[in-house]
Amino acid sequence: MDLQALLKGLEPAKDPSVLVGPGDDAGVYLHEGKAWVQTVDIITPVLNDPYLWGAVSTANSLSDIYAMGGVPLSALAILGFDHCELGVDKVREVLRGSLDKLKEAGASLLGGHTIEDREPKFGLAVWGVCPEGKFLTQKGAKPGDMVVLTKPVGTGSLIKGVKEGIVKDEDIGDAVENMLALNDRASRLARGLGASSCTDVTGFGLLGHALNICRKSGVGMKIDFGSIPFYERSADLIRSGIYPKGAKENLRFVRENLRTNLEEWKVILLCDPVTSGGLLFTLDPSKRKDLDTEARNLGIRAYVIGEVTEKTHIEVVP
After folding, report:
1. pLDDT for 32-59, tens place per residue?
2. Residue 291 · residue 139 · CB < 8 Å
3. Tag placement on the chain: N or C end, fewer CB within 10 Å?
4. Kind of pairing, strands 146-149 and 121-130?
5. Residue 275 near residue 162, CB atoms below 8 Å
6. Does 159 lie in the same domain as 106?
7. CA–CA distance, 318 with 55 (Å, rounded to integer)
8. 3-state SS track over 157-172
9. One domain for residues 154 and 243
10. Domain check: are 23 and 45 in the same one?
11. Backbone angles phi and psi of 223, in degrees to 5
12. Considering Cα of 273, then 174, then 152, then 90, what sign does the dihedral take?
């Protein structure tokens, strides 16, 4: 459940400087003429290597800043661990992975907080700025817009396989590489081309995050399954019944607004909770050639997976 749902019926303090409050990927606050963006995210271990866990978790935390079209500037670390189970050497490896990823992003670690926790958790509270005061939100998609995705889906089932000892870190190198990849270039792509809406694909899965855009924008989407990038190993695991329970929870979240005749495993794949996924944004179709050119210049992939419709549901076709 997201924070916006928990805040229902409560009254946060009203402040005209709040440009974007709870309910989007991050908050945006206007101060001294600049739009500052802030978020927080923590996750449990996704890989066996503590260094990689720290780096992936950091990329995941930074992603919300990029989804708003922002640039991260600083961060505070949040670390929960059992001193008896997770030794100091491993904790330092988690932090080393995080620091390396923050350096890559050009952001500084200012401090943080640790807590005693039987289940390890790590993440960051991140602060940044929106260049020239311009920012992206989940609201603004228009009928006829292209729907663009910048990373494959399916990491949730891969992580489930790792946790159950079925999959090794080294067996999913392509997925690890994508999870480690910052969304900075994807953010520049979306912002530079004038994306009408944007979000990142994480815990709610592709369909869950697509539905958030639809609800905020008052539109629907028609998505082509054949255009969606995913990991073949994820598909194999899901077909054999190995996937996180969050996938079923995400399916319950979107089911009322979903129209499709896809096989069940394909629907589960599209609801698979993603860690450090790509950006999902909408763009005027006249920018198709520019999208391909700019993505190539930035060294990233941009997949057109569908279009925005006037309907209020998501249709997924084979």
Report:
1. 999 999 999 999 999 999 999 999 999 9
2. no
3. N
4. unpaired
5. no
6. no
7. 35
8. HHHHHHHCCCCCHHHH
9. yes
10. yes
11. -115, 135
12. positive
Instruction: Please give the structure tokens belonging to residue 27.
Output: 């908050």
CB-based contacts of 307: which residues, under 8 Å, 6+ apart? 144, 145, 146, 147, 221, 222, 285
Number of residues that this document lists for the chain: 318
Amino acid identity at 180: L
CA angle (22, 116, 88) in 5-degree steps: 115
Helix/strand/coil (H/E/C) assignment for every residue in 51-97: HHHHHHHHHHHHHHHHHCCCEEEEEEEEEEECCCCCCHHHHHHHHHH
Chain mean position to CA 63: 6
Let me know if 141 is exposed, middle or buried by CB neighbors in 10 A (0-12, 13-18, 19+).
Answer: buried
Contact 246/268 with Cβ under 8 angstroms? no
Distance CA 208, CA 205 (A): 5
Instruction: Provide the token pair at 116.
Output: 């005693």
**Residue in this structure with the two tokens 């003429």, named with its chain if needed:** 33
Can you list the alpha helix ranges (DSSP code H) found in the chain? Answer: 3-6, 50-67, 88-105, 155-163, 173-180, 184-192, 205-217, 232-239, 245-254, 264-271, 288-298
Question: Which one-letter amino acid corresponds to residue 65?
Answer: I
Range of the domain at 122: 3-133
175 and 305, same domain (yes or no): yes
Other residues' Cβ atoms within 10 Å of the Cβ of residue 114:
13
- CA atoms of 111 and 293, how far apart (whole Å): 40
**250-303 pLDDT per residue, tens:** 999 999 999 999 999 999 999 999 999 999 999 999 999 999 999 999 999 999
Question: Token match 């910052």: residue?
Answer: 182
Do 103 and 211 lie in a common domain?
Answer: no
Q: 300 φ, ψ to 5°?
A: -130, 170
